[in-house]
């Protein structure tokens, strides 16, 4: 503790006050002396010049060149020395003549140029080493505590020992990135041992390559035990034996003598002064780094020299101008010296440094801030001495008053003199953070912009705002120059107002991050610019998010192009109509009343009513969602009426009310502002433009608190201080800035009060107990700090987590200055050797991070829409929320909030957190409704109200529960212990049996089976297995786990294999399109036998031939599951003829066996039937993804929303070593949404950063991370960026758009684009054309039958039953009912006709029609409970069950759309009255008065197809009572009405859906599937205008798997000539029934 405190005093306090200089005892006397003399020179030289010479420019002329020369020499020499050490040009000189002669004989030259073996072109290569002798100069990146050692590339130590005088040198330039990491990172050193190459021992483990990966740890000197330890890491027994032989006692003696000889060798680095002149330098890189900081680039050196000269120039100018007197001259020279010295040796770590280790940017902070302050001092002084007659006055304050300018100048002078204290406390950030903060604050408060996500985004957004103001300034200036009168406003000003609203709307809808926009432009103009490496293992795994973001931005840009034109024209028309002048002042009062009432209802009343504890008084929400009482949510959240109300109120508020208010104030205030009495025309025009842009953009982006600002401003400047008003426009502008600061101060004070409340404070350490009473007398200072920090938007952080609060440096809303994102460890970013040996990333945190990544994608899809629906309550920029479920706890940080977009970052916490985290999780998840406390007693509480204690306690929390049932799509996780499932031998035997059956299934279903059977190499390798008497007696086979083990032959014989698995092989062959010979002696059985033996032998090899041991068996099973197959037997080398057998047959076999083994527990005997087992495997292939969690395919499957996933996990964490079977099922998860005080989060984050980076507190149980339930201190602090916090996942900054929210688009509509407008016009025209044609042909004689009576479900009418039970014939045979559906004919009574004009009256059940506004006349009751297994274009073969529900309403053909009437009339005219081949039920349609026809089943299906896709599930009127035969079914399909379509959008054609590996769709025929894609079309492709007829359709959410679409759109299977095309229904135009 004492040494750490001294280190903080030296490197923290001392170095911060002096600018980087301090006495370091770890450095030599020469280094410390050079630092001292250099610092004294920089301090004393300007002071001496000022005291010795008169105050004139002579001081500047002398001082600046000297500083320039000094810095140029030092920086150039430092840069050249580092270059010399990088090149490694070494001169070796021996201490005695014998050594010198040996060196000359061996080398022939005293210098050797080293080549780069690990340069930038090979960042991951190994480091080539020569011998085991320590060199005087360690490589770049080794710390002062570590040196390095080298190895002979041939690993022949003795070969170099006879060469006396040679030294160990590293051959190569060392990458500078090692230096940046602050340590010697030589984690993996690859070398090829000579023993491996020279050994004649046959290597049976073919999976081990000749290049062995070891972990190499550098030390000060490699002793012999350390050498032996490093060799033990090779895990190669042959190599270890060979190396142990090398390390004989004689060799040890020779090693020691060699080390003694090496100590006498002196080494020099060659430093070139001139092309022919060089000198030798005798110090290493660590000494050079101790002297000066390294500037790696020439530009950095030039910048440092320029800044040093600027500091000297500006400082000397201020000195000679007499700004400083007496002792302050020396203080100012001290500040100059600290700024210049930091360019040579900076403070590391600085109090405002956001990262551990060396920070290159922080070195430039002091000189840059010094130059800014000096320039500001000079400008303020110049302004005070040269004030013009024009004065800038606002609210009675003259900003050009000389006294005010002089006061500001003196304040900046004092701030400059306090630089040592300022930088010690850490009140100023590093330069890039300050630039981002400044641009962001100006953009938000001046131009009405949003928060930014990076420095580039801040500059981009700021420049866009300036460009917008510049474009609008000209119009406004021209309008203000025109003549105005009381009743007429210039048209040019109306044009300005229209453009102002349109431009503000567009800017509010654009993200500040231009990267997606640049990517979109690049994809449009340079589509092939991205070079893809075909050998990249991730080339097939494509992340859908970038393309989704580009499409969203593209849609928004197209929508803005149209909407901005409409908005501009609309508001121009409103403004030019003089409504804002004629209706005054009544219009202003109406608008103020509207904004007050709508804002109060939208942003206060509705959010409070929807909270879990409204006003902290009620015990439950007053406006409950449909999911509120559901124990387990199974569907997406239902849109409630109050959510729709919230959206529409928000839409009206920000798109109508606020623009009208701003235009009203512009009209009434513009001329007054630009008058000479106020701001004059030039400045007034600028203020009008900026104020209008700011108010409109902020209202469009986030109008949550705007109504408070407007109402307060109106009341304040109307009734209280009317004389101080500077027109309502400027009042609103400045009050909006003031209110944002007041809200921030309010949140800071709430955080402080909550955190230090004495009745709930939790002391995490003894320091907290001491600081609590010490902070009480300083409360006034605390409030002053809170006000200052609110003004500058800086965090107010508790010092070391105590009750003492200090102000931190300014930060942007994003807060974290580094773009830290979690990099998941999997097989795509780790070496193969590490995957095989150590299994990296096997800890729970790394594997569970994928769930938070999927949660981020789900939020990206729905977060913005949910915020607009009010599901997260009120929100603003910088707000923080916690999502809590059973195992997921994530902090969501809202950064940028725009008009229809939200940029956020998610931070996922550990599943099994610490004790403190669990206590805080309990606090946010426990219910408080049942508490009955009132002070010290428990009298109870009023019904539906909270108790007094709960009401009081909820108001003293830094968080509140908003929602308890927030529905979000995610994965439910089920983990089962693999050890318990495979404990006994019988269970392992079942797994092995399924393993063998899985191999047989995949080999028989493979498309390459014929190729494998014809492969001569395979046939030759499998020749021994073809013998019927062959038996494999490998010791791997065990009678306890192998079903086909032959006890007599002590192995697995071909005969026993056939007895067990031949039936399964035959069945699998029978399911092939081209059945193969599956006899006992066939080549197929031989191949299956060989593969099954190979697979089980691989399992035994991976289990170290100890399958009887459970741990070994699980280890081998996991190795095979992740694809680590080790072919150790020569009998299995035939597999190398085609490695696809391993990848496509054996690996899926072992993975599928795990799932089948799980199914065995639910139905033990079900899979004994081959048909059931086969269908189960087919089903699992389609619906289940089985992969290792380290496989990139696993991450891709999770992010692509696969319905189910399964994996075998090996957990090695915290001393645990267990195997788990992980099962993921996609479903809707329920989360609790907790809103946290954003100033609490920012303050705790800032405190942790200061404590760990600057104060170096590495105590894992420090007091600042102990649980504090009132502030959630542990959860917030653990969510910090690593290594400050320990989240298991930190997402990149992700933008969510409202256009991707499906529920929001249902009642607001989607994006308005030219394509959507065109499609709408075309579809409307075709509907009108069809309606007119149907009206001309119908004759108008169709009668309405609204008064039809109800039919009883239980009455039995003979005539009806006779007509319904008529059997159909197919092929001349009477098809009798078979199966469970026989005889279930629903009895229906006939009802009399109620209309005299019609011969008969028939009804169509209303359930056929989907509920939509276009079909509002459709009745809503159905007569039968049914079960449909086919879509609307296929005849159902299942029966229906009568129910006790009658039909109370009917539908007539007149109520249907005219287009459907025309199609039905066509169908009735073309089709015969009766149909054969189907069993029908006479529920016809209304007919004309001239004829009465019954509509057969096929036409009723056509009706359902015309009415909509959902009606296909409700067809009951034309179903047979029993199961139809396949012949009947095919006949029914031929008799169906088939309608034609025309392709309108070829981009909706699904060209590759038929070849999808996941088989999302169930095709009506396998032959059609093979022909319905690009693989069959060849050169042909569907074009716009092509016509064809629909033969099948897939509908979303259909009950029938054969008719179910895997996406949220209907897919049509269309036959165009002899081609089959799958196309989305939205891309076609329906032409009607085919005649």
Description:
- The protein is an alpha+beta fold and 1635 residues long.
- The chain is built from 53 helices and 29 strands.
- The strands form 8 sheets. Strands 11, 12, 13, 14, 17, 18, 19, 20 and 21 form a 9-stranded mixed β-sheet that branches. Strands 24, 25, 26, 27, 28 and 29 form a 6-stranded mixed β-sheet that branches. The protein has a 4-stranded antiparallel β-sheet with strand order 2-1-5-6.
- α19 runs antiparallel to α21, α25 (680-701) crosses α27 (727-756) and α27 (727-756) crosses α29 (779-792).
- The longest helix is centred in the middle third of the chain and has 33 residues, at 544-576.
Secondary structure: elements and pairs:
Blueprint: H1 2-18, H2 29-52, H3 57-87, E1 90-94, H4 97-107, E2 111-112, H5 157-161, H6 176-180, E3 188-191, H7 194-198, E4 212-215, H8 224-232, H9 237-246, H10 249-263, E5 265-274, E6 277-281, H11 285-291, H12 298-320, H13 327-341, H14 365-385, E7 393-394, E8 397-398, H15 402-417, H16 419-425, H17 431-445, H18 455-481, H19 491-508, H20 515-525, H21 544-576, H22 579-582, H23 586-610, H24 641-673, H25 680-701, H26 706-720, H27 727-756, H28 766-775, H29 779-792, E9 796-798, E10 805-807, H30 832-837, H31 844-868, E11 880-884, E12 889-898, E13 901-908, H32 915-925, H33 948-954, E14 959-977, H34 978-981, H35 985-1004, H36 1009-1013, H37 1016-1021, E15 1031-1032, E16 1052-1053, H38 1054-1070, H39 1083-1102, H40 1110-1121, H41 1140-1162, H42 1170-1183, E17 1184-1186, H43 1192-1199, E18 1204-1213, E19 1216-1236, H44 1238-1254, H45 1273-1278, E20 1289-1290, E21 1294-1297, H46 1302-1308, H47 1314-1338, H48 1358-1364, E22 1369-1370, E23 1373-1374, H49 1458-1470, H50 1497-1507, H51 1526-1535, E24 1539-1543, H52 1566-1571, H53 1574-1577, E25 1587-1596, E26 1604-1605, E27 1611-1616, ...
Helix pairs in contact: 1-16, 2-13, 3-12, 12-13, 12-14, 13-14, 14-15, 17-18, 18-19, 18-25, 19-21, 19-25, 20-21, 23-24, 23-26, 24-25, 25-27, 26-27, 27-29, 35-38, 35-39, 35-41, 38-39, 39-40, 47-49, 49-50
